[in-house]
Known about the structure:
The protein contains 6 helices and 2 strands; from the N terminus they run H-H-H-H-H-E-E-H. It is an all-alpha fold and about 150 residues long. It has a two-stranded antiparallel sheet. Helix 1 packs antiparallel against helix 5 (about 85-105), helix 1 packs parallel to helix 6 and helix 3 (about 40-55) packs across helix 4.
Amino acid sequence: MDKQFDILRANRLLILKIIDNYSLEQLNKIPEGFKNNIAWNIAHLVVTQQLLCYKFSGLPLYVSDKMVEKYKKGTAPKIDITQQELNDTKKFLLNLVDQFEDDYGKNIFKSYQSYTTSANVTLNSISDAIEFNNFHEGIHLGYILALKKMV
């Protein structure tokens, strides 16, 4: 499973590098033909990992209910992300990978409530969730790269 955490961390480091030179205005811009923006995508990644891996394992999340409601599947930006929210989200991107790897190493993921994703993949274990989450992160990296060209 170490490789899966390496992949997650590498993806998130790449995202941070990509967005490093973009203004808050650019990160909040929703280009024509898109439903969301770069800022929403990165916060969505944080929330989705928490839901797939912690919620369905019956464990508390490290992010707020407010953040979950704002960035979970099926949402779209209603208001711009603030600089403070962006700063917090950027910290979550890496810190929560470290926390997740540590929690996994402590074997706290004892059970898992099966969940069928919108990609019609049924997750039955934390291992399934970790692997699917990396797939999901790759999809959103693609969206971020597309959005980057438009802002």
